[in-house]
Description:
The chain is mainly α. It has helices at residues 2-34, 38-65, 67-88, 92-120, 126-151, 155-160, 163-175, 180-185, 189-199, 207-214, 232-247, 250-263, 269-294, 299-322, 328-347, 349-358, 361-393, 395-416, 425-433, 462-470, 475-478, 482-491, 493-510, 526-540, 542-548, 552-564, and strands at residues 446-449, 458-461.
Amino acid sequence: MIYFVALIVGLAGLLFGFDEGVIAGALQALRAQFDLSAFDEGLMTSAVPLGALFGALVGGPLSGRIGRRGALLAAASLFTVGALLAGLATEVWMLTACRLGLGFAVGVAAMVAPLYISEIAPANRRGMLVSVYQLAITLGILSAYLVNYAFDDRWRTMFMLGAVPGIALLLGMWMLTDTPRWYLMQGREAEAADALRRLHQGSDAELPLIRASLAEQTTPASWSELLSPVIRPAFIVGIGLFFLQQLSGINAVIYYAPTVFQEAGFDLGSTQLMATIGVGVVNVLMTLVGMALIDRIGRRKLLYLGFLGTSLSLSLIAIGAATGSKSLDILAVLGLIGYIASFAASIGPLPWVMMAEVFPARVRGLAMSVTTLSNWAFNFLVVFSFPLLVSTFGLGAVFGLYALVCAAGLVFTWRYVPETNGVTLEVIEQYLLSGKPLHTLRPTPHIQIHTDKPEISLQVSIELMTSVLRLSPYASSLMPEYAHLGQVAHQNQQINTALRELHARLLMENGTWNASPLSLHALGPQREVLMTFIEHLRFASSGFLASVGEGPADHVARRIDRERQ
Ligand code: BGC
């Protein structure tokens, strides 16, 4: 179910990519028909990032008020109407206005879609699932390139085809519910439980966790909260990564690929176009590779690889161009393939993934608005300045500049980026709010908790195990053994179930897992659960008992027996 949802929401990315790619092929025909001035052309091309800038601004508050689903429905409707009208435009100003509207819709969708996906995804698959969105962007770009190729100068058809993903998104979102988190934020408990059950095949066990993470949110977040110093490290990560993503020059390549190939010595228009399609294909394929890696090797490692690969590849082109190398065409092709490949597997998806992870739930919507907005602003900056820079300094110098930015990305990752792989959004939030330097966040070792229903299996950190044990009055005798407990839990389904329940209840009732030691009697409703847990431990984990012999576990068991009588 979750994959299905991610696919539908991913259509928003398809809209984004299609709009980025389609103008490249349409421009030629538009120039012929409308006798465009340079200003008209510039304005019409950049109307999408400009509109998107406003869309991103509105997307946060909108997705808070009418919901993530409502915002995506609105964006899809606007996109569909905009694409059809753009195809019917008879004047340049009409086309520019339509593209502004399209951009607005793309801006809203580009912000809300990753938010939606991150809110429904389990922590250990979140990176991969949010990357579905980036995959969709690359598919959008590739389909636009193919449409350009197939329809040659029929620009009306090219624009109108954009309505297809628009309608698909509209229909798809119509079938889905909003996210459990959003329903809870609205106090709509029953719908939240219902949405969770739909997502997790019948289980709504996560409800208390989400409720707890929202517990402190009594008033709506305000813009001024975004300036709070506690949130700043998250902004540095979000905006910083988008700065690096865009200033790595990606859209100079995406928008101007044919021109770049021409500069590199490919004279034939059709060769340039084929090479451009090649760029689109590598972009899609390597995004798949990135998706496979992101939750395995983690965010930081993948970023290091990406920035290293892009800076080396760009340097190759820059050196070739600057030295007037005879084999510039080959260098350019190799360099561009290396560049797109490293970008697509890493710097493409990661800013989107991390943007959806680093902000506390309370300000997530607003903060993601601002962060996506920065993406559009940097995007605009690069696309607008590229032709000017190339004509002034030459291709070599410009690519050299982008290479430097990518090298700076290595330092940035080391200095500012946390490792959020497999860490729940709630723990990331706690870490940020605790004031510890965000980049020092690392996943704690996890125990895979298996239940008889695979969909409600989860990972529990050693930290959590410790806290669970800390709740017990026997903490002092049990604490040194928790590593063993971890192994037992790994093997034993019943303990797993009890643990999971306990975890949920702890968070629900204490709002935190760092509960201080409590006496068994003071546990209230948790008492039974803790007892079940320890009982399971006693009866089901002979391995554990054998390993500690007559030690603490037996002691615990005896005490429990006494208390129970
Ligand atoms: C970027 C876009 C870019 C695309 C290329 C996205 O992550 O935000 O600006 O065109 O990747 O695949």
